[in-house]
Amino acid sequence: MSIKVTLPDGTVKEVEKGTTSLDIARGISEGLARNVLAAEVNNEVIDAMRPIETDSTLKLLTWNDKEGKSTMWHSSAHLMAEALESLYPGIKLAIGPPIKSGFYYDVDFMDYNFAEKDLEKVEKKMKELAKKKSEFIREEMSKEDAIAYFKKKQDPYKLELLEDLEDGSITFYTQGEFTDLCRGPHIPHTGIIKSIKLTSIAGAYWRGDEKNKQLTRIYGITFLKNAELNEYLEKLELARQRDHRKLGKELELFTFSQTVGQGLPLWLPKGAELRLRLENFLKKVQEHRGYEQVITPHIGSKKLYETSGHYAKYGADSFQPINTPDENEEFLLKPMNCPHHCEIFKAKPHSYRELPIRYAEFGTVYRYEQSGELHGLTRVRGFTQDDAHIFCMPEQVKEEFQNVIDIVLYIFKTLDFKKFTAQISLRDQEDHSKYIGSDENWEKAENAILEAVKEKDLNTVIEYGEAAFYGPKLDFMVEDALGREWQLGTIQVDYNLPERFELEYVGADNQKHRPVMIHRAPFGSMERFVAVLLEHCAGDFPLWLSSEQYAILPISENFNEYAEKVSKVLKNSDIRGFIDDRNEKVGKKIREAEMGKTPFMLIVGEKEMETNTISVRQRGAGDLGSMPIEDFIKIINKLVEEELSHEDLNA
């Protein structure tokens, strides 16, 4: 019996029932077949070796497809697990998924002492096993047989995973001497994996629960060619050099203290100044666009977050309630600013003539992240959001949403984030249980975002299941200088919180109506944004943002007094810098100033003092010659103006 298989270009292949995707690829060309890693059949990613039983659509997945890479990295995790079991008999395996760049496997090493130095040994074993070209064989398994298999193997983590699986939905995969509980899909055979690098190890609690045993998480990545691995390792080294934790320490921006607590950053003077400049930059933009600043407490009544729905969704995994001497009182550390802003809106009656109302706040919030998930400034327990909430009429939603997009684009251009994708995050199409609010309100909100984005002609992707629990959103996924993707700005449309808080305004018909709420945070959080910006520009900030725009370098101590005079004039013009009055040669001072990423070096000696001038060097451009101080001030102001002139703020 034959079936029809439709390819992405519309070509229809008539093949025998039970033909595999790999067979179809071979029918097109052997070269294509060698590159196939998996297949997408009727929008489901499956093994390329699985038989196709009905008329279907087919997309052959290669290394150029995200799903193709993910399948290979999933298979690589299985290959690593096989190598580990071979080298360390009796270990217990937990989970081994693909991730954005590579894969990991969580392992209970029992009585073995496993360290970074052992990774090379595992890599060598993986390469040896890969050369056997073992096929990945899929087998459906009854729950009873699956439990019996892992009981015999004495594998507690797999047995616990089986508890949540339904009979009839369980599959095993075997390659070589290794069998694992797995949904798949997998590549045709291990020989496809050519280049292997195990990158690091870390601690990870089983199922992310600190009450459970801490396992060893081994990270790795694989490629089809050695050249691709070498390119990746070069980028990895660059990333290490640009690591915001390393640069933050070198530039004296922030620190952490175990005494203060994990995940709670301390901003040092230079870091605080940097952060305040970013805040003031956005405040100026917001002021010109009709935002009003508000301030809310760091805590709120538990009832506030029960009303908003945050407690039901996140309460169990967040900081626990704060009790007071009054047994009827319970407070929470603020996890979100939006419930507080709803109460500010509710504090007095509103007319449609007042709308839209835009409340903005740099509000610090607190969320309990597992200790193993904390990472510098990118994953913390206390962070400040550049939060704002717009309360508007339904007919104003699209225009307000687009105005926020304009702010985000201005920020990205000013800070040189050139590559980004606007991710439209919608509800899971099947499972609506994770969300609050009516289907009608969700449809309105999703349509509003889709219309607004379409008119802005952004480079977009749609991701189902990534919406916030109260509404769909537009997330800006930014690619940094190393090609890594970060989620920064976000805009969300919300019909649900206004209902939960019973927010109202009086319309032109003199009747009460429900406003629509737009949540927005162009930076996302100050901590995460500073971390990403720091790594993106390697600490070489634009001039307007630099903590020290100049270094005055006296040739000898005889000219320190003149250096002080120059510094005073510059500081009176709001230009930031310092005097390096150490008893060192000026050449050394110049080199160190350049290494410290100081944009301008101002050399002063006898000639400069007599003529009331400065000799100017610009980092990366060299000697600009001698000039009056006033001319240097004009150069600085012009450069800063150019950096910030991408948009008319009165728009």
Question: Can you describe this structure?
Answer:
It comes from Brumimicrobium oceani. It catalyses: tRNA(Thr) + L-threonine + ATP = L-threonyl-tRNA(Thr) + AMP + diphosphate + H(+). This is Threonine--tRNA ligase. The protein is α+β, with helices and mostly antiparallel strands and 651 residues long. The chain has 4 domains: 2-62, Ubiquitin-like (UB roll) (Roll), CATH 3.10.20.30; 67-240, Threonyl-trna Synthetase, Chain A, domain 2 (Threonyl-tRNA Synthetase, Chain A, domain 2); 261-294 and 334-537, 2-Layer Sandwich (BirA Bifunctional Protein, domain 2), CATH 3.30.930.10; 550-645, Anticodon-binding domain (Rossmann fold, 3-Layer(aba) Sandwich), CATH 3.40.50.800. Helix content is 35%, strand content 26%. It contains 20 helices and 33 strands. A hairpin with a 2-residue loop joins strand 10 and strand 11 (178-181). Helix 8 packs across helix 16 (526-536) and helix 13 packs across helix 14 (439-456).
List the helices and strands and how they pair.
Layout (H helix, E strand, L loop, with lengths): L1 E5 L5 E5 L4 H8 L1 H6 L2 E4 L2 E3 L9 E6 L4 H22 L4 E2 L4 E2 L2 E7 L10 H12 L6 E4 L2 H11 L2 H8 L7 E5 L2 E4 L13 E11 L8 E10 L2 H17 L1 H7 L3 E2 L10 E2 L1 H20 L3 E2 L5 E3 H7 L1 H5 L7 E2 L6 E4 L4 H8 L11 E10 L15 E11 L4 H18 L4 E8 L12 H18 L3 E5 L8 E7 L5 E10 L1 H5 L4 E2 L5 E2 L2 E6 L4 H11 L13 E5 L5 H13 L4 E3 L6 H10 L4 E5 L1 H6 L1 E6 L3 E7 H15 L8
Parallel strand pairs: 1-5, 16-20, 22-23, 29-30, 29-31
Antiparallel strand pairs: 1-2, 3-4, 3-5, 6-8, 7-8, 8-13, 9-10, 10-11, 12-13, 14-15, 17-19, 18-19, 20-21, 21-28, 22-24, 24-25, 25-28, 26-27, 31-32, 32-33
Helix pairs in contact: 3-4, 5-6, 8-16, 13-14
